[in-house]
Amino acid sequence: MSALAIRSPAVAFVLSQGARIRLAIEAYLARRAHYRAVRNLSELDDYLLKDIGVPRCEIDSLAYGSSDRKRGHEHDMG
Which residue from 36, 34, 55 is spatially nearest to 46, judged by alpha carbons? Predict the structure, then answer.
């Protein structure tokens, strides 16, 4: 039996801690990206937001992906 096949509780704990750290880092980076998207969209003026079809009140929901709103070109993709 190889050394890699033997799993002690300590090895499993270290691996699970590594996975938790990786998930925490990924979550942190995702939050930063969403915050940056909200900040960038919020800096646009109302006319430009209207041109791209984003009302100012929907910036947060669009950045976090929680909008059920359909854009004009998505109606045709049924």
Answer: 55
pLDDT in the model for residue 30: 93
Q: How far apart are CA 26 and CA 32, in angstroms?
A: 10
User: Which residues 6+ apart lie within 8 Å of 34 measured at CB?
Assistant: 63, 64
Whether residue 63 contacts residue 38, with contact meaning beta carbons closer than 8 Å, is answered with: yes
Q: Could you tell me the mean pLDDT of each successive run of 10 residues in the chain, 78 residues long?
A: 60 76 92 94 94 92 71 47
Distance of CA 69 to the CA centre of its chain: 18
Measure the CA–CA gap between 47 and 54, rounded to whole angstroms: 10
pLDDT score recorded for residue 6: 60
65: left (phi over 0), alpha (psi -120 to 50) or beta: left
